């Protein structure tokens, strides 16, 4: 069969040395009038940058028609071609290995990029990402190497962020994938240039925020809490976004790992966490707590005081069937989710405090953790009139709302459904109300918890004086200030 095309000449041969030599001897690898080669011979030792430079040169010419590719770089080359604004008109099918040599399929036809090139390249990337997140290292290792090559390509600057978004979609669609994604991210931190990894990370944070808004604005939370009837056949904590399931617990796990583990050094020191996942976690936690509060309110409104005869009948029934009383599976899932959010908030509070401590942004002293030692902006500052949802003041506002909701439900008779969840909520409030936290290492300096008030008015605690236990009085002052009692 011929490999020539009526629309142009063969511009690239990618394969082993024998394959390239065969095509060159066949007279196909010609030179144009400007003596520029219209082919590229690539072996296993050819740097990726050479392939990219060759393609950059080829894409400036008008006689491009066919590219011959082999399996090990097929996905990368197809993606580079499909992602170009002017797709190359034809690509031969991938040669197959036969008898130790690459041979063309006798029935191979031309692959013509269609109008759905973006969709096809998306499917290719999804397949590679799915393999990269496989539990089997024999499957994931080659896919991870392909991802590294694709991310570092210089033809399109948007590729790293796009890959980051696909990684998040895959990680929240199956249980356990969030941990596998985080393992891949730590690898990419060391194998990709900082500028490229920054774009990848930006795409990850964008997608996490997108899923957060989707879950907040959807019906999955009210359905899980039992406020709304279940209208879909989906079970568990999943919601469908772009025809793919989004597991709420996996999204929570991924967001928390981005806060607590993403920037952790090899020796275990804690550094400043990224701000955007902190905001997303608080947004999602506030939505979950408000939905739970609504479910408590709705349940209380439906119940009426029982009559004496109803009380007797209820006691008899309860004494005979208490051992068989069980929560519905959906209610159990909701209670587990509520406990998970309270636990994760307690885990991340010290990292939020670290952000405030090392911030040069003014946060009101009435906030949970403020930067009131900084100078407040003038009242006529125009920036105060703008609403920015990616700032520390916004994080402080969200955190105050979350902690207030937890305290509000603690004082309700049925605010939390079990003693275990109430205990988790109490741990969270104690962490938030304490005036100091364990020491953290950040940039070689130690950071200590800063309270929300510097009020030094006298506080009297029975049996304790300022001379023998000054730290207790200081802690108690900060506790009163943080709980609005000073």
TrEMBL record:
Q: Where are the transmembrane segments?
A: none
**GO CC field:** proton-transporting V-type ATPase, V1 domain
Alphabetically sorted, this entry's keywords are: Hydrogen ion transport, Ion transport, Transport
Keyword Transport assigned: yes
State the PANTHER family in the record: V-TYPE PROTON ATPASE SUBUNIT F (PTHR13861:SF2), VACUOLAR ATP SYNTHASE SUBUNIT F (PTHR13861)
Recorded family membership: Belongs to the V-ATPase F subunit family.
Q: What is this protein called?
A: V-type proton ATPase subunit F
Specify the species.
Answer: Hydatigena taeniaeformis (Feline tapeworm)
């Amino acid at each position: 069969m011929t490999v020539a095309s009526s629309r142009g000449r063969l511009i690239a041969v990618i394969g082993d040395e024998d394959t390239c030599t065969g095509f060159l001897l066949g007279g196909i690898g010609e030179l144009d009038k400007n003596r520029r080669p219209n082919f590229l011979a690539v072996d296993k030792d050819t740097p990726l940058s050479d392939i990219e430079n060759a393609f950059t040169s080829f894409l400036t010419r008008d006689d491009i028609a066919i590219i011959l590719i082999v399996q090990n770089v097929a996905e990368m080359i197809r993606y580079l071609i499909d992602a170009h604004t002017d797709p190359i008109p034809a690509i031969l099918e991938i040669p197959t290995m036969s008898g130790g040599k690459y041979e063309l399929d006798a029935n191979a036809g031309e692959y013509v990029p269609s109008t759905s090139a973006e969709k096809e390249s998306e499917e290719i990337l999804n397949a590679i990402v799915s393999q990269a997140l496989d539990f089997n290292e024999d499957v994931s290792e080659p896919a991870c190497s392909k991802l590294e090559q694709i991310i570092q390509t210089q033809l399109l600057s948007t590729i790293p962020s796009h890959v980051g978004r696909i990684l998040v979609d895959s990680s929240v669609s199956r249980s356990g994938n969030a941990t596998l994604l985080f393992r891949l991210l730590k690898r990419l931190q060391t194998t990709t240039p900082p500028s490229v990894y920054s774009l990848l990370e930006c795409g990850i944070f964008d997608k996490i925020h997108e899923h957060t808004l989707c879950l907040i604005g959807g019906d999955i939370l009210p359905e899980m809490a039992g406020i709304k009837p279940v209208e879909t056949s989906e079970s568990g904590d999943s919601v469908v976004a772009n025809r793919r399931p989004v597991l709420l617990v996996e999204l929570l796990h991924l967001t928390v790992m981005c806060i607590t583990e993403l920037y952790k050094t090899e020796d275990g020191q804690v550094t400043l966490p990224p701000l955007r996942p902190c905001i997303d976690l608080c947004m999602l936690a506030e939505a979950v707590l408000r939905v739970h509060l609504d479910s408590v309110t709705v349940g209380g409104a439906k119940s009426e005081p029982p009559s004496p005869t109803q009380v007797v009948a209820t006691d008899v029934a309860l004494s005979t069937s208490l051992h068989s009383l069980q929560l519905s599976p959906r209610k159990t899932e909701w209670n587990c989710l509520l406990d998970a959010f309270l636990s994760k908030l307690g885990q991340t509070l010290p990292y939020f405090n670290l952000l405030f401590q090392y911030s040069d942004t003014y946060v009101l002293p009435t906030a949970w953790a403020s930067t009131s030692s900084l100078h407040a902006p003038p009242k006529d500052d125009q920036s105060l009139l703008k609403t920015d949802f990616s700032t520390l003041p916004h994080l402080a506002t969200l955190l105050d709302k979350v902690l207030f909701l937890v305290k509000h439900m603690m004082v309700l008779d049925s605010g939390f459904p079990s003693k275990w969840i109430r205990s988790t909520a109490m741990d969270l409030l104690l962490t938030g109300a304490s005036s100091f936290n364990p020491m953290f290492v950040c940039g070689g300096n130690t950071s200590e918890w800063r309270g929300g008030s510097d009020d030094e008015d006298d506080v009297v605690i029975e049996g304790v004086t300022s001379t023998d236990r000054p730290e207790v009085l200081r802690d108690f002052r900060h506790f009163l200030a943080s709980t609005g009692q000073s």
